[in-house]
Amino acid sequence: MIYRTRSEDETKALGRELSQTLTADTICLFGEMGCGKTEFVKGFLQGLGYDGDVTSPTFALCHRYDADKIVYHYDLYRLSGYDDLYSIGFFDRDPGTVSLIEWSENAEEYLPEDAVRIYFEYGDDVNERILRLGEPT
Questions:
Q1: Which of 19, 57, 58, 116 could link 44 by a cystine bridge, Cβ 3.0 to 4.6 Å?
Q2: Residue pLDDT, tens place only, 14-25
Q3: Tens digit of pLDDT for each residue in 65-86?
Q4: Residue 123, CB half-sphere, CA atoms under 13 Å: how many?
Q5: CB within 8 A of 123, min separation 6: which ones?
Q6: CATH number of 2-133: 3.40.50.300, 3.40.50.620, 3.20.20.20, 3.40.630.10?
């Protein structure tokens, strides 16, 4: 499945929409810096009933949000390897929660096989983003 968005608002709207249709408890976000991963997460959380501030957990490594479900928002940009993931509680997630993982490429070998993978790319226009569910191009 391929989606194109042309603004941050459209990327958030897509996140809201997919929060209602994706049933996986782990959603892995791949893509370069500035490709819209955090904007997507903002929309996803809105779709789950969260109306507070959402920020990238670049320095905190993980933010927890209490929405219709408990959501863990990870940023693995500065992490590598099992020990780093273990130290932030990555493997201790409770059943029934949702994990949104930015920079999933840094933990590919530790991601659940049944996780949804979304690949973010820059489009032709400065604000255009291409989001691919499933496999990268």
A1: 19
A2: 999 999 999 899
A3: 999 999 999 999 999 889 999 9
A4: 16
A5: 4, 6, 129, 130
A6: 3.40.50.300
